[in-house]
TrEMBL record:
One of its GO terms (molecular function) is hydrolase activity. It comes from Xenopus tropicalis (Western clawed frog). Residues 171-310 form the Sphingomyelin phosphodiesterase C-terminal domain. It comes from the Eukaryota. The keyword Glycoprotein applies. Residues 1-25 form the signal peptide. The gene is smpdl3b. This is Sphingomyelin phosphodiesterase acid-like 3B. PANTHER family: ACID SPHINGOMYELINASE-LIKE PHOSPHODIESTERASE 3B, SPHINGOMYELIN PHOSPHODIESTERASE. Gene3D superfamilies: 3.60.21.10. Keywords: Glycoprotein, Hydrolase, Signal. The keyword Lyase does not apply.
Amino acid sequence: MRCELRTFLLTFKFALLIIFLPNQAVTPTNLSVGSDSGHNVSFFFLSVPSGAYYSEELKDVGAAGRMIVLNTNLYYDSNSLTANMKDPGDQFQWLEDQLNNANLKGEKVYIVGHVPPGYFEKKRDKPWFREEFNKRYIEIIQKHHRVIQGQFFGHHHTDSFRMFYSDSGTPVSSMFIAPGVTPWKTTLPGVENGANNPGIRVVEYDRQNLQVFDIVTYYLNLTYANKVSPRWEKEYRLTEAYQIPDCSAQSMHDVVKKISNDSCYLQKYYKYNSVSYDLEACNKTCRVDHVCAIREVDFNKYKECVKTESSSIRHMFELTVLFIVMPVYFFTFDL
């Protein structure tokens, strides 16, 4: 990791470097403790405050801005050390305080972290957070969405996003899940086509208010790299791919509707999800898994979405069978 950091700093000498903790950066893997109890064995804990979360003022923008960096490994369902804690590391309370202060100061914020809330779109019923942590995170986003201009997470190594809605169903925030530079194939049992090409993305934003107006993703085609040579190239621009004006919550809600209702947009999204690695079609079951994971971060609403969308598939199948069988039946009757 030090080599990568050195390369980055030499290449982008005047850029603000924001580091957040991945679940593999601690030993044992996935285990981050919720307090400074002597178990913090990662080098990362030596360079940031206890808990590995912090905020950074964005000084070179027109608006008052702040980057809030979370350690969501504290909420990871594979982290047994925080299983019985209400607020590991007091991070939720700290986040509330940061967002309240941002509102008082007129700041806009970005929230970044590694493990995202909600469900993995490639494996049905696979959440990342423990349920009580997932619920608390959603409540905080709903409460403070007016100061949040974007959420950026990773962990999946896939290209996806998540929606957050008010209790009345209005889209209030979106979370962009970035693809990984590491060509990872998930080890989760039951996942088909779980590999990805390496990908990086450039976020374009308005320096006056931090509104995200576009995201451009670049990728390295592993097949081409293995046969010829490595070559980074543009994969897609978000607004062009989905025909939206910007990356606001309302625009991303429109993307969800397009993916849900239009097979062309669904297949386009599915291609980008693996960073153009998996070129197979996304079938009806695949559609349910992705649409519900994107639309419903809440555990109960996700389960209801899967149930409703799956019932719709079964209903369509029954109608199809009926239309196939009925003409044969009437033809036989006329004879």
